[in-house]
Structure formats: structure tokens, C-alpha cells
Amino acid sequence: MKPGAISPQVHGLFDPATWTVTYVVHNGPGSACAIIDPVLDYDPKAGRTGHASADQVIAYVRAQNLQVEWILETHAHADHLSAAPYLKAQLGGKVAIGDHITAVQKVFKGIFNLESGFKLDGSQFDHLFKDDEQFQVGDLSGRILYVPGHTPACVAYQFGDAVFVGDTLFMPDVGTARCDFPGGDAKTLYASTRKLLSLPPETRLFMCHDYPPIDREVAFETTVAEQRARNIHVHDGVSEEEFVAMRERRDATLELPVLILPSVQINIRAGQLPPAEENGIAYAKIPLNVL
Ligand SMILES: [Fe+2]
Fold first, then answer.
1. What is the mean pLDDT of residues 133-151?
2. What was the pLDDT predicted at 6?
3. What would the mean pLDDT of 169-198 be, rounded to a whole number?
4. What are phi and psi of 62, to 5 degrees?
């Protein structure tokens, strides 16, 4: 079955601590499913992880009697730790990300001075997706859209009329993702947003985050038509030059995410904690005066 021919069911769980939406995409109760961008709770004061958010995903999957085939990351997130290994242990499924993750691993292996055995080939993941690669979730056909800019490795996942855009577009009144992390690039993100906005106008777009203005509720589903008409950063008519100038001006004002340091060093390991030291404890590192 071709992408576009079907309309899968999508369940979104919003995490208010990190503004992240985790999705379960499936074809109805009893079917196969994919989990997208699951969150591992993390208390930075205590350095302690937790499973409350991931357990909500598990409860939904079990209530719908779904079989997890894939646990998909849109990119190596900088604002939350991935719950992929926890969910894989509980529910099964293969953990996957875009194949350009190797470039991100290389940059951050340097910054964090990771152990020499840390591989730069993405082998911490079960599968690396190439641009336009197709794959199956039961009878749902999925397709990869390579959409770099926020990071050099971002991908979006398309299942029929539903596209999980990762950190590219946000809701129309919020705009687009930042491009100032290592390897990010505003011009590249502009091209990725045009790629997404060239999909059929009725295509359902599911955001990776929402940062709602105070006068509206959290929302994370919109359409290509709505984004082309109303996205404050990339509605039809905004040129690449205008976008890049706006994005770079705005990025210069943004603070780094609270959890960027623990998140990145764990997420480039596919969500695994670093190897424990001789005392049995795993440590996250803080590079001083680098970021
Ligand atoms: Fe991100």
C-alpha cells in the first residue's frame, strides 16, 4: 500500500515537563504500532530518571492490544532523554533514527570526550533510516523524509496522510524549530519546511513539541494547508532570505534547553545510559565552557 492511501490512528501524549509529544501510530485495536519520540522523565536536581511518562505509553499500547514493531526517534533530542530502551524492554520493537545520526555522534563524542569504545556508526540503534526509505508497521506503510536544519540528522515519518514532522515546523502560531545547535542551519531548515509543505494540503502534520501562547491550550496537530496559510515563520510567500534572517536573529535570544547536556550524551547512545564506572554508577558529564 502506498503512503497517502490510508489514514492511520494517532494517539499523542503531551509531556508538560519538556513540552514534548510522544505518539503511538497504528491501524486500530489489535494492530501493529510504532511509538515516536518517547520521553524518559529526568530530575536534573537529583540526577534521577523516571518512567511515569513512558508508563502512560505502555498503558495505552496494552489497552489497545497493540504490537510494537518500531520505536522511532525523529532526531537526537536536546530537551528530554529518550525512553526507547525502557519501552523496548517492556514492549519489544526496533529502535531507529535517521542515518545522519553518525554525524551528530561524531560532534558530541568530541565535546563529551566519550570512551574510546563509543562507536560512530550508529550501531547503538537497531536500524538507521535513509532518506525516502520505506518500511512497514503491520499493514501500515511508512516512509522517511530527511528534514535536516534543526540538527543534521532530523527525519520525519510519513504513514499515509499522517506526517510526524519532528523539530521542523511547530504549530502555526509558534513557527519553527531553532537552528543554533551544533550542525544546525537555518537555510537547511527552510528547505526542509518547503519539502514538508509541498505535501498534499490535507496532509495531517503532527508536531514534536508545542510551546503554546498563554491564551491557547496545548495543540499538536495541524495540516499542510493551515501551515502554508498561517505559519508565522514559513507561510507561503516568506523567502529563504527572510526566514534565515528571522531565524538567526531569534536563535541568538534563546537559552539552551535545561536538559541539553544529559539529553544529548544519552540520546546519541539510543537512550542507553553511559557505561557504569568501577563503583557501578553511571555518570553524565558536564563539559565546562564549551556550549
Ligand atoms: Fe529537538
1. 97
2. 83
3. 97
4. -70, -40
Instruction: Give which of 29, 27, 32, 100 is closest to 68, Cα–Cα.
Output: 32
- Of the candidates 97, 225, 249, 96, which has an alpha carbon nearest to the alpha carbon of residue 169? 225
Cα 276 to ligand 1 centroid, rounded to whole Å: 27
With contact defined as beta carbons under 8 Å apart, do 191 and 234 qualify? no
Going from the Cα of 151 to the center of ligand 1, the distance in angstroms, rounded, reads 8
User: Residues with Cβ within 5 Å of ion ligand 1?
Assistant: 77, 167
Task: Report long-range pairs for 58-65 (Cβ below 8 Å, ≥24 apart).
Answer: 58/87, 58/90, 58/91, 60/11, 60/13, 60/24, 61/24, 61/33, 61/35, 61/91, 64/11, 64/24, 64/26, 64/29, 64/30, 64/33, 65/29, 65/30
220 Cα: distance to centroid of ligand 1 (angstroms): 15
**In which order are the strands placed within the sheet that holds 48-50?**
48-50, 39-43, 81-82
As a whole number of angstroms, the distance between CA 11 and CA 17 comes to 19
Interval between CA 75 and ligand 1 midpoint (Å): 7
Across 4-8, 34-38, 42-46, 47-51, least confident range: 4-8
Distance, CA of 214 to CA of 15 (rounded, Å)? 17
pTM above 0.90, yes or no: yes
